[in-house]
Amino acid sequence: MLKKTPLYDLHVELGAKLVPFAGWEMPVQYPAGIMAEHGACREGAALFDVSHMCQLTIAGSDPAAAMEALCPGGLITLKPGAARYTQLTTLKGGIYDDLIVTNAGDHLFVVVNASMAEQDLEIMRAGLPDHTVNPLTDRALLAVQGPRVGDIVAGIFPQAAALRFMQSQMVGATRLSRLGYTGEDGFEISVPIEDAETLARNLIDAGAEPAGLGARDTLRMEAGLPLYGNDIDQTTSPIEAGLGFSIPKRRREAADFPGADRIVAEASNGPGRSLVGLRPDGRAPARAGTEIAAPDGAVIGTVTSGGFSPTLQAPISLGYVPAEYAAPGTPLNFILRGKAAPARVVALPFVPHRYLR
Q: Which of 52, 203, 212, 263 is deepest in the core (most CB within 10 A)?
């Protein structure tokens, strides 16, 4: 049985096409279509239901210090109301999941991927035996993203105007966090289930266009943001994936997190391979699983995400290649239907981020 989010009935009312995703019945698009939803986010505001993601709290003595035993991120330096991106790493330096951790005062507020929720809860409970790890099953999560969101959200929650990128605040029973997964300015809003539909309708009435998983994927690809299960997994390290920015010097020097031997060595010496942006010379998209070849024909990597960029009106891809092929401008080939199609490495992100810092 697929789970339904608190906004399921609203999705049906709005004519969404619903598909299975990570055990949930989720909207992939609405009648306007993915291109229109994508454009709404880049030019105005788009509303995404992300209630399938697992929201949880970690409570106990100094939870940030305890959590650093599982993550390479710098969590003990988080000021109250500050959020930080990090990963749960494996003993071999891979990634169990990526997540956002917020200092909520006397506890941590954490959001993890829906597909990894059960695994993550098990890891945290085993690794934090003296702390309480509590999934928040009574809350929904809405993401509103785009250049107009500041005015839209502040029109409902005036306190939102004071927040900057990666800052969070409780307003009554609602948590406002200025962050997101599109490269645009945006908020993720955690609300009690009973308030979710009213809030969603208010955001739509204020100008946010409903958007589904299809636009969410094209937006995050343009922003060069990795998707767990595609671009990062237990075989990829944070350094290979270009996530070294999330591991501060203090943590690298202490090397006291899972997989530190590999991760610190790669941070110091460079990884053997890197996640890069790729653009074909032609119009045919190279999707996940497409082989990447060197100019001499040798297969050197695989596309992990790929599709059409509505903003650039061109195909884009992400994939891993050996370090010697990772510099922007490097000519490569996609193997499409058995034939070599010229492509080149490009700098990430494909579309510049516009976070409000």
A: 263
